[in-house]
Amino acid sequence: MIADCRLPITKHKPFRSVAQSEIGNRKSSKAFTLLEILISMVILSIALTLAWQTFSAATRAWTGSRKLMDKMHHGDFILTQLSSALRSMAFFEETAEHYGFRIENNTIGHGEHSISWVTASDAFIPRGETFNHGLHRIEIGGGTDDDGEEGLVVTVWSHLIDDEDAEKKSWFITENIKGLSCQIYDTDKDEEKWKDDWEHSNAIPGLVEITLYAEPIQENDDPVEFRQLIEIPLGPPVTNDISEAN
Questions:
Q1: Strand-pair partners of 227
Q2: Would you state the pLDDT for residue 229?
């Protein structure tokens, strides 16, 4: 019997150098775990949220400032026109009942009053209207347009016709100004004080304070106010009270 002299065959593992082992270890160390990915996503979402909130706050502040500036320019323009018309009041003592300055209570919109006077100024009157030429009575106060929107309304009619019989024309000036209030500096009977009524319907005042009310910047805020003192040059002579000029 012949003995089997063949050596047993053994399987050898593939040889890996030290350099290949280090490269494999470095590759495995660069991988991210699920926990690390989740933490990174949370941090990124927080950073994006903070950035968005900062951007939104800056945008709201810029928008609010722009709206306020627009209202200020608009309010200044209306006050300039109103001052020009008030300073051009006309008055004649022979028919004083047709020329007096008047204050009426007004409950529409912000503010408390409507004011009217006689003037030849074309302030607030569209081109082509007959009231552009000659004296007329003009009334300004809060009102509504055909769509029910509140704003500042101007009404004009002939100053020599009684209010009840006059044919009046009205214009909606702006929806940004919601109304006005008026105070008179009265020196009658040596009592110098501000009053919100005017009893002298056959005269005009020497000094008035007009306050315009614009819609608030944000809902539920107080209205934006524009206030101006207006001196009327004809005030002292028509009242025959020299103390009003002091």
A1: 211
A2: 92
CA-nearest of 106, 122, 124, 123 to 114 is: 106
Other Cβ atoms less than 10 A from the Cβ of 229: the count is 11
**Is 113 strand, coil or helix?**
strand
Tokens coding 88: 């051009």
Distance in angstroms (rounded) separating the CA atoms of residues 198 and 182: 10
What is the radius of gyration, based on Cα positions, of the chain? 40
Q: Are 177 and 78 in contact (CB under 8 A)?
A: yes
Q: What are the residues whose beta carbons fall under 8 Å from the beta carbon of 195, sequence distance 6 or more?
A: 183, 184, 185, 186
Residue ranges of domains in the chain: 67-245
Burial class from Cβ neighbours inside 10 Å (0-12, 13-18, 19+) for residue 74 reads middle
- The dihedrals phi and psi of 231, each to the nearest 5 degrees, come to -90, 130
Q: Which tokens go with 203? A: 């005269």
Are the CB atoms for 180 and 211 separated by under 8 Å? yes
The upper half-sphere exposure of residue 43, i.e. CA atoms within 13 Å in the direction of its Cβ, equals: 6
The pTM of this model reads 0.67
Instruction: Give dist(CA 12, CA 29) in Å, integer.
Output: 28
Digit-coded pLDDT (tens) for 103-128:
999 988 888 999 999 988 888 888 77
Structure-token pair, residue 104: 């009426």
210 φ, ψ to 5°?
Answer: -110, 130
State how far the Cα of 102 lies from the Cα of 139, in Å rounded to an integer: 9
CB 122 within 8 A of CB 160: no
pLDDT at 26 over 60: no
